[in-house]
TrEMBL record:
Protein name: UvrD-like helicase ATP-binding domain-containing protein
Record bears the keyword Zinc-finger: no
Keyword ATP-binding: yes
Positions bound to ATP: A26, C27, A28, G29, S30, G31, K32, T33
PROSITE patterns per UniProt: UVRD_HELICASE_ATP_BIND
SUPFAM superfamilies according to UniProt: P-loop containing nucleoside triphosphate hydrolases
UniProt keyword terms in alphabetical order: ATP-binding, Helicase, Hydrolase, Nucleotide-binding
Every UvrD-like helicase ATP-binding domain range: 5-260
Biological process (GO), any one: recombinational repair
Gene Ontology MF term list: 3'-5' DNA helicase activity; ATP binding; DNA binding; hydrolase activity
Species the sequence originates in: Methanosarcina barkeri (strain Fusaro / DSM 804)
Length: 260
């Protein structure tokens, strides 16, 4: 027999019953995954819309797969995880619902945007900055649009050219429709800033957001959620353990979550 909402008590039942915008700061061993699955299960059982859904987002494929498995095994949710709902990674959500259909509005690219997963030789040969020794795969933008590097290499910090070639190469790359995932996050943030109607459309399509592993959120990703809130999102749960930020190397900033 699967778990029921009635089987929970204390803080967990409070989380399951709470609505609106709130943050849950969990700790290791607190049963976070089970609570997230229970929250989704509770929402699904009451869901009535056929074209508006729940966005249940995590930061890794492993994490959302664990949630999906728990939904099926512990809560008997064998169906209902598909349209109109979304359960998956934050990268997949950003790319599917924002970057690919609307990214061209801020990228000024002729082709459909494409996330570069493997830097093929022809891409490196055409766009790589040869003056500074930097690798474009390690470069992206901070929340203010400044070029930053995720590499420990000294090339970027010691550049005597003020990164002119790197910046020009990134622009060429973008105008050709190529981006890293970090680039995608930044330009989706700019997209929602420039086109609030798109943010409103996303909020209409997904009136409920559940963000698991929120401690791995970057400044830019958190700004994306803030922009959705500014444009009408009224139901958002952020849950995470700030002591288990495993993606700090990829611009994740646990302080962003802690401050919420």
């Amino acid at each position: 027999m699967g778990l029921r909402i009635e089987d929970f008590s204390g803080d967990k039942i409070h989380i399951l019953e709470k609505d609106g915008v709130f943050v849950v700061k969990a700790c290791a061993g607190s049963g976070k995954t089970c609570v997230v699955a229970a929250k989704i299960s509770s929402l699904l059982r009451k869901w009535e819309s056929n074209n508006r859904g729940i966005a249940a987002i995590s930061f890794t494929n492993v994490a959302w797969q664990e949630i999906e498995d728990k939904l099926k095994k512990d809560f008997g949710v064998d169906s209902g995880l598909d349209y109109p709902h979304f359960i998956g990674t934050i990268d997949s959500f950003i790319d599917t619902y924002l970057l690919l259909p609307f990214g061209h509005l801020v990228l000024n690219c002729e082709n459909r945007p494409e996330i570069i997963m493997n830097w093929e030789p022809e891409i490196r040969g055409k766009f790589e900055c040869k003056k500074s020794g930097c690798k474009l795969s390690n470069l992206s933008y901070d929340i203010n649009g400044n070029l930053i590097s995720y590499s420990d290499s000294s090339h970027f910090s010691n550049c005597s050219l003020s990164h002119r070639y790197c910046k020009a190469s990134k622009i060429q790359l973008r105008q050709s429709g190529y981006l890293t995932q970090a680039d995608a996050n930044f330009f989706v943030m700019k997209l929602l800033e420039k086109y609030p109607d798109i943010a409103k459309a996303i909020v209409y399509r997904f009136p409920v957001f559940l963000i698991d592993e929120a401690q791995d959120t970057s400044d830019v990703q958190m700004k994306i959620f803030d922009l959705l809130l500014e444009n009408g999102l009224e139901r958002l749960m952020l849950i995470g353990d700030p002591n288990q930020a495993i993606y700090e190397w990829r611009t994740a900033n646990p302080e962003v979550f802690i401050r919420k």
